[in-house]
Amino acid sequence: MRTIVKIVLLILLFIGIDRGIGFIINQGLYRYFGLNQHSEVLFLGHSHLMLAVDKSKFERETGVKVSKYCREGVNVADRYVMLKHFLSLPYSDSLKYVIYGVDQFMFTGKGLSQNSYKLFYPFMDNKTIDSYIRESTSAYDYWLHKLICSTRYSDALLNSSIRGWRQDWSNYKIGQLDVENLRQQIKDGKQRHIAFETDLMADFENTLTLLRQKGIITILVNTPIAQILNEYEPEKYQKFSSYLQSKVDSTYVYYWDLNPEFSEKYDLLFDPIHLNVEGQQVINSVLVKKFQSLNHAQDIRCNSSL
Q1: pTM of the model
Q2: How far is CA 297 from the centre of its chain?
Q3: What share of the chain is helix, strand, coil (3-state, %, to 5)?
Q4: Separation of alpha carbons 146 and 131, rounded Å
Q5: Strands of 253-257's sheet, edge to edge?
Q6: Where are the domains of the chain?
Q7: 258 near 293, Cβ under 8 Å?
Q8: Which are the contacts of 150, defined by CB distance < 8 A and separation ≥ 6?
Q9: 294: which of 48, 181, 190, 283 lies 20 to 30 Å off by Cα?
Q10: 2-305: which CATH topology?
């Protein structure tokens, strides 16, 4: 009998410690992604947008609360799930703008992680995320992570949690793009190609539709990518640009393409697709000014309609 009691107590102790660890790590992640606050602006994207935005500075200079739900390696389908996740939270009622990162490879599935659902393990207690993970993995894998919280966290997630507790959204990419190496990679066929996969395009269309239904303004932001990379498939690049332009309207969807002004300023790039520390400072200032202008115009429009 005593042995049974000890086993039960050990199991309960394990569950308590496991849940406690999960709670602490999750709170850091909520802080890091801004899932614990009422925000007017949601940055939604992968590492391109993540490294382009200084969350703290953007908030200070615009005077609005910002959530920065950007994750490395997530594709358009993942971001659609991320949006639904955010909208399912009680803090989403204040959301007015979604600043959505776009690039010419967003409809190319090849090159991104096929296991990106694992990034969402920490949030599988949320109904939206739970359904996504259940559909993406095996029953064994699902229940393992569902029942044991401490299995949900990779080193990258732990680092994000620590940064959330520290309120650290800095860009640590120091260095500049090796232009000649990039030219050689393109010559050797080692760079990604532009594609238009229908399932990813459908997820993007669904994202825009959902935001429009919610009355939320979408700002599509193409952060700078090395011009050499932009030029190597010109017809496909033009097709991509035209497609995004076709989504623009005067009410709910805007498109800010920062490539024409900055794609040849290679000193701002860490690699062909990511900004370095200096690049983040420059692009963040541009985004602040453009957002302030748009937000002011929206305020005038709202006041004139009253």
Answers
A1: 0.91
A2: 26
A3: 60, 10, 30
A4: 12
A5: 66-70, 41-45, 97-101, 217-222, 253-257
A6: 2-305
A7: no
A8: 18, 21, 22
A9: 48
A10: Rossmann fold (3.40.50)
